[in-house]
């Protein structure tokens, strides 16, 4: 249908307000707490408890996280596409944020009672399905509401909330006392953190007559965005994937690294300390990097140097296998990942092909976050057990991240 674009599909021109940004950021942080309490602490402890005799705990953890990441890769673009077509009076994104957060909390409760590896797989897949539904809607809300010139700053606040969510989830999982209590604490945080946006925010409604056509063929084919037709999007996606893969390789077995290589007496507490150090340095760059990028009008240099700093950090884990080395690596990873998180998000929103498909396209882009969670266990387990151990694992992580950082220079449409 021709005519002016409705408000829900128009390119935003008014700056997003502080209250809106704060509520969206809090919801984003709550989702990351729901992910990373399990990923950093709870799933590893549960895998060690439930691993069948003769099966390595690393292998169980790899199966659980890998299965969940596969679900994540499908859920994010699928829900993004469905939210693009949602004509609810509450807007396109809010219903999915509410449903995803409620479902995620329920799935975390299910994990709390898991008594077998099979139940762990089921519970974690449901967590990934539901929290990715909420996350897809939250990320799509940014290009819906934020003009280009402000996206670095908003991306910075979302990134700050992300790391605070990681710290909060890790802290809740650590201090709760038991694995089950940790899951329940994370579930409560997910619900409470998303409530302010769900209850107070109202979005522009998509008129039913402007809803894009929906069919199974359109949904399936929409998952493919041709890098030949949209080369900048293709290079941006590959940059994000490789840098996230390097980061995932560095973090996946952190608890086991502290326990088995550094022989820390309290590896769970060590993970919390490293996460806190990482969070402090990340917070020092994530918002500043986004605002600075907005002011100079450039994205590529920030992504490139952020990737280089992260490469140095993972290189430290490979070459300086001591507790002080781990602390320095955590600090540098925070510096690099902070700048990368905010500026890369802004860059991604500037290479989207069409306003009507922002949710789906960002969902496809977010596969670059989820796919490393599949690839990292598949790569890490054989490297640790057969190809050189943790030293080689972190060397591989450094190399992968560096290649990703260099590829950002192939993007032509965004400076």
Description of the molecule:
The chain is mostly helical and 415 residues long. 76% of the residues lie in helices and 0% in strands. The protein contains 14 helices and no strands. The chain has helices at 18-50, 57-84, 94-112, 117-145, 151-175, 179-200, 216-221, 231-251, 254-260, 267-296, 300-319, 323-349, 358-386, 389-407. Helix 2 (57-84) packs antiparallel against helix 13 (358-386), helix 5 packs antiparallel against helix 12 and helix 13 (358-386) packs antiparallel against helix 14 (389-407). The radius of gyration is 20 Å and the shape is globular. The mean pLDDT is 88.
| Helical coverage, percent range | over 70%
The general outline is globular
Largest sheet features? none
How far apart, in Å, are the first and last alpha carbons?
34 Å
Structural class: mainly alpha
DSSP summary, beta strand count = 0
Question: Please, what is the average pLDDT?
Answer: 88
- Give the uncertain stretches in residue-range form: none
What is the beta-strand fraction?
A: under 5%
SSE succession: HHHHHHHHHHHHHH
Taking Cα atoms only, what radius of gyration do you get, to the nearest Å?
20 Å
Tally of helical segments: 14
